[in-house]
Every structure is written in C-alpha cells, then in structure tokens.
C-alpha cells in the first residue's frame, strides 16, 4: 500500500489510467454504475449525495458529477497524492464535493463525514486491501447510508476454483478477439498458477465473488446481488435496510 503514498507512482498511475484508451467492457461497467446510482436515487426518492470509497484522483467523481444532475459527492482515499490530484481535478465542481482521508484497513463511520448518503460506490479500489479491510469498509458504508440507500461495488474478483480456470481463460480470449477489448486482460496468465502469480506481483488482494456477497450481507445490507459479471470483473449492488 505504501506505493500509493509515493507522488511519482500515484502520478504515473493516474496518467496511465486517464490517457490510455480503456476497454469497452470497463467503460460499460462504469456507465452502468453511474446509471444504477442515478436510477436508484430517483426510484427511492433519495438525494443523489454520493460517497466514494477509494476515490483516487477523482476520475470517476468528475464523470458522476457530470452525469447525475444535482448530485453532490464525498470522496475518501488513504493516499495524500491521490487526494491532491482529485482536489485539482474537481475544482470546477466547487460547492458540490468534499474530500477526506480514510484507510480501508482502519475505516470507521466517523471517517466518512457528510452523511447520510443516497448511494456509496467503490470502483477498482477495495481489491487493494486485506479481507478485514474490505469488511470494515462495507460496514462503514452501510452505517452512513440513508435507509434504502444503494451501495455499488465495481471491482476485480479472485478466482478460487483452479478447475474452472479454463472457463475464465475462454472469456479473456473471446474479449481479446474484439478490437474494442483487445489486450484488456492479456496479463492475467495462461494457467491458474500464472494468474495467481500475476495477481500477487501486482499486490492485488481481491476477494471472491461469493466472499464479497457474504461480507456485504454480514455488514447489514438487506438485499445483495451480483448484477454484471464478466470473467473476474463484477458489479455487485446492495441496499441498506429501510
């Protein structure tokens, strides 16, 4: 996790993820996440006041503030360099956002000010922390959501079934044949062992799909479902008890 506190690393990561073309699937999942938040808040009669766990440099925040009329936003991240870049990126939205520092590994509801929130999101961030950190983050998000509020997790999942790895490989190979998807998951390995090694070398610590569903239920969410899963990339939604 220390690498995220290195300004050089954080800047290089941000430039890479801001400027290079992303796969169609990644863009689709982000568009879906934004649409889910917007639609749920309208249907539930909730103000689109959005909490972002692991906001990074504010890339997702800017897209959400542009796409959801009347939305306001609170982003938290453990990395000071990321928060500094988010502050710069979000300056055009003055009055609609706030940023704060919070670490998944020790997260509490008190570190998530500004609630209650109509929705909370976590986009490609929670896989960086321990399983205990994931559970703390889910419980803290649940505590600050308004009754009926929506939590949306969009992240990578851990493969825990070596015998099924060829099925995942078939998904990745199929995606790589599509020009808009090409190369998106080509570094995931050609065997279960290679895949596990590549995940470890990146420092990723994703939970499995089943684990994330269980942890969200244990955090007190009333309804939980995986609504979009392609290979190891999933969108999971959960609703706070009314």
Description:
41% of the residues lie in helices and 22% in strands. The chain has eight helices and seven strands; from the N terminus they run ααβαβαββαβαααββ. Strand 6 (221-230) and strand 7 form a beta hairpin. With 242 residues, it is α/β, with parallel strands linked by helices. The longest helix has 21 residues, at 24-44. Helix 1 (7-19) crosses helix 4 (80-89) and helix 5 (131-144) crosses helix 8 (209-218). The radius of gyration is 17 Å and the shape is globular.
SSE ordering = HHEHEHEEHEHHHEE
> Mean of residue pLDDT?
89
Strand sequence of the main sheet, in spatial order?
3-2-1-4-5-7-6
Q: Return residue spans where pLDDT drops below 50 for at least 5 consecutive residues.
A: none
- Computed Rg: 17 Å
Q: Oligomeric status of the shown chains?
A: single chain
Descriptive labels:
globular, 242 residues, 22% strand, alpha/beta, seven-stranded mixed beta sheet, 8 helices, single chain
Describe the secondary structure blueprint for this structure.
Elements: H1 7-19, H2 24-44, E1 49-53, H3 59-67, E2 72-77, H4 80-89, E3 97-101, E4 117-123, H5 131-144, E5 145-156, H6 165-176, H7 192-202, H8 209-218, E6 221-230, E7 233-240
Parallel strand pairs: 1-2, 1-4, 2-3, 4-5
Antiparallel strand pairs: 5-7, 6-7
């Amino acid at each position: 996790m220390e690498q995220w506190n290195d300004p050089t690393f954080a800047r290089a990561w941000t430039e890479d993820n801001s400027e290079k073309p992303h796969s169609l699937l990644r863009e689709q999942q982000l568009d879906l996440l934004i649409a889910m938040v917007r639609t749920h808040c309208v249907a539930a009669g909730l103000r689109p006041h959005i909490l972002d766990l692991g906001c990074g440099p504010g890339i997702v925040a800017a897209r959400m503030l542009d796409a959801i009329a009347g939305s306001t936003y609170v982003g938290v991240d453990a990395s000071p360099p990321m928060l500094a870049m988010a502050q710069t990126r979000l300056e055009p939205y003055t009055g609609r956002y706030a940023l704060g520092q919070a670490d998944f590994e020790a997260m509490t509801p008190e570190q998530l000010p500004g609630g209650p929130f109509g929705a909370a999101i976590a986009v490609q961030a929670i896989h960086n922390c321990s399983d205990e950190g994931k559970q703390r983050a889910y419980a803290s998000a649940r505590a600050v959501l308004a009754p009926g509020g929506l939590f949306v997790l969009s992240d990578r999942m851990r493969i825990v079934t070596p015998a099924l790895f060829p099925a995942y490989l078939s998904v990745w190979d199929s995606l790589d044949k599509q020009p808009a998807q090409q190369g998106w998951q080509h570094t995931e390995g050609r065997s279960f062992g290679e895949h596990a090694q590549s995940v470890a070398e990146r420092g990723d610590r994703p939970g499995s799909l089943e684990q994330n569903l269980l942890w969200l239920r244990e955090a007190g969410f009333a309804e939980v479902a995986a609504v979009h899963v392609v290979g190891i990339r999933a969108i999971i939604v959960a609703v706070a008890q009314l």
